Each structure stands twice: as structure tokens, then as C-alpha cells.
Amino acid sequence: MLLKSSLIRAVSQTKGVITRGYKAKAKKIPEFTQDRYQVSRKSFAAVTDSDVSQFEKTIGSKYVVTDSEELLTHNVDFLKAVRGNSKVVLKPGSTEELSQIMKYCYEKNLAVCPQGGNTGLVGGSVPVFDEIVISLNRMNKIHSIDEMTGIAVADSGVILENLEKSANEHGLVVPLDLGAKASCHIGGNVSTNAGGLRVIRYGSLHGSVLGVESVLANGTVLDLMSNFKKDNTGYHLKHMFIGSEGTLGIISKLAILCPPAPRAFHVAFVGLPSFDAVLQTYLSAKRQLGEILSSCEMMDKDALAAAIQHFGLKAPIDDYPFYMLLETSGSNADHDQEKFNSFLENGMEAGHIVDGTITGDPGKMQEIWKLRELVPVALIEDGYCFKYDISLPLRQFYEIVPVMQERCGSLAHRVCGYGHLGDSNLHLNISCSEFTPEIYKRIEPYVFEYTSKLKGSVSAEHGIGFLKTKYLSYTKADNAIDMMKEVKNLMDPKGILNPYKVLPLN
Amino acid sequence: MLLKSSLIRAVSQTKGVITRGYKAKAKKIPEFTQDRYQVSRKSFAAVTDSDVSQFEKTIGSKYVVTDSEELLTHNVDFLKAVRGNSKVVLKPGSTEELSQIMKYCYEKNLAVCPQGGNTGLVGGSVPVFDEIVISLNRMNKIHSIDEMTGIAVADSGVILENLEKSANEHGLVVPLDLGAKASCHIGGNVSTNAGGLRVIRYGSLHGSVLGVESVLANGTVLDLMSNFKKDNTGYHLKHMFIGSEGTLGIISKLAILCPPAPRAFHVAFVGLPSFDAVLQTYLSAKRQLGEILSSCEMMDKDALAAAIQHFGLKAPIDDYPFYMLLETSGSNADHDQEKFNSFLENGMEAGHIVDGTITGDPGKMQEIWKLRELVPVALIEDGYCFKYDISLPLRQFYEIVPVMQERCGSLAHRVCGYGHLGDSNLHLNISCSEFTPEIYKRIEPYVFEYTSKLKGSVSAEHGIGFLKTKYLSYTKADNAIDMMKEVKNLMDPKGILNPYKVLPLN
């Protein structure tokens, strides 16, 4: 038992440190979104002093932020790609306060931008103009964790890592893990249907989230909570709030099913000669590691090189065109190790795996995970990074990387691919010294046209947010987009919830 | 490999035979629903000869059924609890034909009742009055099964067992298994968000179904298909069709994620002295069997007695107040057996498990599964059976059974409980010689009031259908029901899709 909990903690801490370490660095503040992307403000009311006084009465003046320095952290996103111009951030402390804020905003036609940990990558979590930011970070109570059923009930502002720690104390794990875990909120994860590293094992949040409480545009509190895995009483409305990025309601509370914590982890890092070998290794892992496979990540040599260069890491094996990080987690260390060793031996015999290292040691696993987890942030360190997370047919998963390398030529510093192979989810990253319209136009919309041609998804997990609204139609049928608009109109007739996001602007 | 496929087939066949065997038996035809439950017909048009001619032109006269004997099988449900009075059954052969039918019905204000395998238990799959039955059974093509990604694409009318067989041939399993698998359609399963025996391992259909194609009330074909595990492009509308029981659209096609087929199965049947011992055993199973636990079923002595009596089975162990059936499935038989044996030994040492048998032999596992799978049908053999499937807090899971025993007294033949313990899902069954208003009133609404008091769900997996519409409010908040009505009105403004179902009638 000691091994288990110390191990989980070790892994969690690594992941946490990565994000925190990165966020502390000063980066260039981008120009205003309205200028860079030429958007027109919709006819919402502008916040007045009288509105601010009313908010102070409702939630207390301490929680109504108008200080320009603090405002900036809420107006700019993690990637420094977008910048809003909000004049006020509200920090409600309860569902009731959140409901009162929304009721007031609805009556006054004031637009709002709900914000969790502000770790989103598509500009969904910051305002576009002067929308009021509603930060959920004070709504951070874990209400209950039931060891027997595995169900955790938490406010939406609980930081993912904190929920994970509490779950661990009950012998459980949160079925979601991602690099930003030290900052992101579970409510934000659910609002954006976050994916991350454990989807291959525990599936998507649509399967794990059992209930949500959501505050609608007009302040109505919609109670769709459930303490049960199964509840077939009428329409499954909660799914409307999972992945709609705060445009249909603001999730205030949720129930999530947490699986039993594994007792043993093992991690392997292997080098492969070709993408075909990567695919064969994935297929073998699914078959031979079956129920204990908990991560199946790939990255190319350029992706790994970025992490090594910017964070002074050392690769545990020689240079290869492709690398994979495989993780198993199970209830018996000996059994898992036997399966893992046998899988690796078979892979080496078949020539798919050329070199590799496997470990069950917490410290060493942590080192290996760093190689994968630091890639996304390392690429931002290049200067500016265009990040695409697309779903593609596995057999054509990697084709787009060399295509984009050729297309960007010397405009790009690095064009590389990594991602969640087990979910057909490629993170295509193109880094350069700074954002220029020239490289932007070289990349978009081409990258989405290419994805669309392969019937892929233009957003596997990051969402549409602000940055991808005009590309929604590359994946979704016209009548599906029409239906989305009708649902939006039904639930938020004034359009005050996170405007300019998800749905096409025109 | 031989072991794996022969084993899967053996188990599937058992389950299939049960349903087929049962359905062949003649049962008393119930009175019309409109008389027994006193419902008022809504002002839809009635089908005319001219409508029938039009349907014959659209899909061919062979597929427009007006023969009274065949109509009866579509008008009466599996439980013989409800009976509609439809004059015509349509069997479209494609999405295009289905779309044309709906377009016509929408224009003419003709109500329809979509029907899959007609194995539902809440009267959702048969008409209440003279709604046109739309049978999906000709739309039964499996379009593709991708061994590498595990994604199967199938028409909605594919019989679950057939999809399972095809998945097995590709080294995969369908993440859903239930007693009616030889008759039920995958489209019906998705429309009703069916649960069944594998939820504990593979989760709910909201997690497994990756995409649906749905024909709306006005004939619009809404393409929400996806060939990917991850697709975060806009609202996740497909979930509106999962579990809405054909009242928002008719699912015509779907994509479902199939996990790798396990290579080894083991089944244990154990006797326990108390319900507390059942709970402790469940908790230990979750912890000790972890990732290989694939079923965790419980039943009380009266439930088992029904199966033994009506089907001449023999219990493999002595009489105990409670029984559990536990199944593991994994990728290494030796590992699984070692874990399972150790778990059983620990349970016996702790005194939770008094007696038991474990096997990995396909024939013996089949015999054990029969003990559980024949319970639901055996209870119908008593004459008439009131079936409730409710979600309850695990610690109070069984309390309702003795309460109902006392309440029904000699009016009931048997009051017993069994179900999916791992999902907090109790099947409370009350059998009697025939339906009488007296026992009906003794049971309802009391059973739902009791469930509501414990904040349980009045329908864990069967759905609301026709029989439970008036009990929806026992689980769902008023404003959630209002929102459901608004969604219904948005997607089916004339209310022609499966009327009198899911939403409260008044």
C-alpha cells in the first residue's frame, strides 16, 4: 500500500510542477483579440459602476476584481494567443451567488465568460471583448467521495490535482489526467470534455460524469446531479453541458465516477524505426496488455528534441525516428511486469521495437513521463506555437506532419507530432519565433482542410473555443450546426454565455 | 485463440437461447393499453388507405404490414403488459426510406412508434393507440469493424448478438451484453441507453457510442457519426438520442467502440450469509480483482428459487440467503485465476463468503450464468410479474425487498431482488398469478416514493417508456422536466415521435 500511494503522488507531483514551473515565466502579452482576429462586438450592455456596486452587494467587494494587474491574468490565455478586455472579474462563492449574478446579467443583457483554471488552448476561457469574467476558483469544495461506489461529488472549481489527491486517499483515482492538472478545474475539464492521458483506459468524461448542476443564462439552477452509475429517467440533458464550453450553462457542481486506484504502475519508453512499427506496437499493446494498458503515447524525434533542449533532459535511449511511452497499471505488480516484459520481447523480436527501457520505480517513471509531458510546453518555449489537436484515421495518423513540414519550410522552427495514439488523437505542433500573419496563413485553413479530407475531427480534445469557430464546419454537417444554434437559442436566448465561442460567428 | 472464441460463443449461445426459448411460449394477450391505463388519444391523424398506398410506393408493398396476426406481435410488448392498436407496420430498408416516411408522416400529422427488437420492459416499444409502427429490422447491415481502432459501424436494426459475433471475429467484444441479446437491436439498445451485464467493466453507452445518425420528426437526417474516440467540435448532440427512447429522433446508424476481446474468463458462484457480507464482498472484488472484474451480480434466495423451479436447474452450492455471481475476464488465464482464487480465499477467511464454486470451463460457466440469466424470465413464468429496476444507495440497496414483501403479503407469489450490484442497480420483482388492480395499487406509487426518499432513480436502465411517465418527477427536478419538454418541442414540435412516452402525459 505504501508503494501505491507514494507512487501515485510522485507521478502527480511531476505533472504538477511542469505546469506551475511554466506558468511562472514571463511571456509577451499578445495584442487584443478584437484587433488580431477582427471580430465585431455584439450589442451587449457594457458594465457600469452601478453594476459593479450590485455585484459587490451580491458576493462581497473582496470578490469583485477590477485591479488591472489581476484583470490581465484573467484576460490573457495560457498560450498568449488571445487577449480580452474585461473590466471586472467576479468570484462567486456558491451556486446561489452564481445564480444571482446570472439572473442580474440576464436582466441587464451583460455578457459573461466563465473561467476555470484558464488552461484552455483554443481561447475559450478568456473574454473576447469586455465580457464579465466569472471565475469559479472559490467554488472549490469536495463534497463527498464514496469509497464503495467510487463516486466523487465536487464543486466545479476544485483543482484536478486536489481531487486526484483526495480520491487517492480513498483508494480511487480520477478517470482523467492531463498536464495542466495543477491548475485546471474539474468543472472546466467537464465543460470542455477534456481528454488527456487516461482516455484509453477509462474512456471519455461522457461516460465518467454521472451528474452536473448547471446555472443557466437566466440564473436558473438546473439540478442534473445523480449519485448513480445508472439513471435512465428521461433525456440525458447533462451531456449538453459536457463539452459545450460554458456556452449553454455554467457547471457549478458535478458527480464523477472514480475507478479503484491501481496498485502497481510500470512505464516503458521505446524507440521505433518507422510509423508503421508504431502502429503495430499499438495493436500488440492493446491485445497483449489488454486491461492493464493505461497510456499509449507516441512522439516523433523533433518533439522529443524540444523537451530535451529546453528542459535539459536526457533521453534514456538512443535517437530514433519515433518514440512511444507505454504505461500499465493494475492490481498485481508481478502479473503486470510479466505481461509487459513479454510484450516488449515480442515487439523486439518482430523488429517493431528497436530499443527501450522499462521501469516500475517511481522516480524513474517520473523521469520518463517528463519526456512526454514537457513536450507541449517546450514547444511554446521556441517562441510561439501553433497547436492543433486533431483526430485522424490511425493508418494516416502521421502523414500530415511531413506535409506541414514542407508547407511551412523555413517559416517554422519545428513541425512535429506527438499525442494519444490510443485515441487516434494527434497533437500537431508548429513552432516559430513569433506569431506572424504569414505563417498563420500558411497553416490555416490548410491544416483543417487536410483533416476534413480524411474525415478527421478538427478538434479531438481542446474544443472549438474562440480560435476554431470558423472551422467547425470542416467536421460537422450543416444541419448539425443548425441544430446546435437552435439548442443555444433555446437555452441562452440572449446569447450572453461565453459569446463568440464554439458556434460560427456569422 | 480457440479457447477464447469457443468460450465467447458458448456464453452467447446460452444467453440467446434463454430469450428465444421464452419468447416462443404463448402468453395471455393483455387488454388494450388505452383501457387498462385510461389514456386519452392525442389529435394525430388516423392512417388512411391513401397513406398506406403512399407507404407502399415509398418502401414496397412487401414491407407495409397490415396483416392482423403479424400486427399483434408489434402491438404487444415482451412482458404482455401493454397493447397498442396500430393498423400498419412499416419496414424501411434504408435511412433514405426512413427519412421519406418521416417526412410524409410529419406533413400528415401521423404519429409513429419506432420499434427495434421489442424487448423493452416499460412499454416504450409498442404503440399506445394507433401510431404507425416503424420497425428497424430490415436495416441490419454491419458496415465496418476496425480491428485496430475497435470501432464498429452498424445500422440500428442489427441484432446485438450478431454484432457481438462479428466483433468477436475481429478480436473485439461489444461493450454491452444483456439477456435479450438474441432479439434486441443495437439501435434499440442505444435509444434506451441499455445497461446490462458489462457496465461495471466497460461503462455506459454514453461513453461507448461514438456517433449516431438520426432521422428527425420532419425527415431530416442528422449526421452525428464519428469514427473517432475524441471529437470536441461543438455540442455533443448525439447524447440527446442516447436514452431518449425514440422520442427525439429515430437512430438509423451508429458507431460504437468495441474493446479487445478478453482471452480468459472465470466465473464464481458464491453463497453469503447476509447482505452486509454481499457488500463487503463487492468492495473486496473491486479492490482485489480490479481491472479484470467484468460482472458482479447478486440475487436473493427467492430469485434463485424461481429459476430453479421453472427451468429445472440445479444450484451448485447449498442454500444461503444471498448469492453472488462474479466474472473476471482478462488477457492471461493464469494471472486471472491466481487473483480470483486469492480473492475467494480472503472472502472465506473473513467469513463473508460461506461457500462457492469457481470455474474457467466454458460449459460450467454457461451453467452458472444460467442461474442468473433465467431469473428475470422465470419470474414471469409465475403468471404476471411487476418489474422495477431502480438505482439505490448501496448501503440501503436491499432494504426495499423485505418492505415490499410485508406490504404485498399474500397478494404476491414472490417478492425478490437481484441485480447489478456493481452499478447500484436493483431489480425488484414482484410476481403473482395475474395482473390485478389491487396488487398494482399496493405496489405503485409506493415503490417509487420509497426510491425517491432514498434519492434513488426510479429507472436505472429500463427507461421511462409508457409505464413510468407519471413517476419521472420522483427522480427528476421540475425544471429538468421542463427543459426536457422544451427540447422535445424543439426537435419534434408536432409530438409525432413515440407519443405518450418518456414525458409526463399532462
Verbal overview:
The structure is a homodimer of 506-residue chains. The termini of chain A are far apart. Chain A contains 18 helices and 16 strands. Mean pLDDT of chain A is 93; it is low at 1-26. The longest helix of chain A has 22 residues, at 2-23. Chain A is of the alpha+beta class and 506 residues long. A 7-stranded antiparallel beta sheet of chain A has the order 13-10-12-11-15-16-14, with helices on both faces. Chain A has 3 domains: 23-135, Uridine Diphospho-n-acetylenolpyruvylglucosamine Reductase, domain 2; 139-257, Uridine Diphospho-n-acetylenolpyruvylglucosamine Reductase, domain 3 (2-Layer Sandwich), CATH 3.30.465.10; 264-453, 2-Layer Sandwich (Alpha-Beta Plaits), CATH 3.30.70.2190. In chain A, strand 5 and strand 6 form a beta hairpin. The first copy, chain A, has helices at 2-23, 33-36, 49-59, 68-75, 95-108, 160-169, 186-191, 199-202, 205-208, 238-241, 275-288, 301-311, 333-349, 362-381, 400-408, 437-443, 446-453, 478-491, and strands at 64-65, 89-90, 112-115, 132-135, 142-145, 151-155, 209-215, 221-224, 250-257, 264-272, 293-300, 322-330, 355-359, 384-391, 414-420, 425-432. At the A-B interface, helix 9, strand 8, helix 11, helix 13 and helix 18 of A face helix 9, strand 8, helix 11, helix 13 and helix 19 of B.
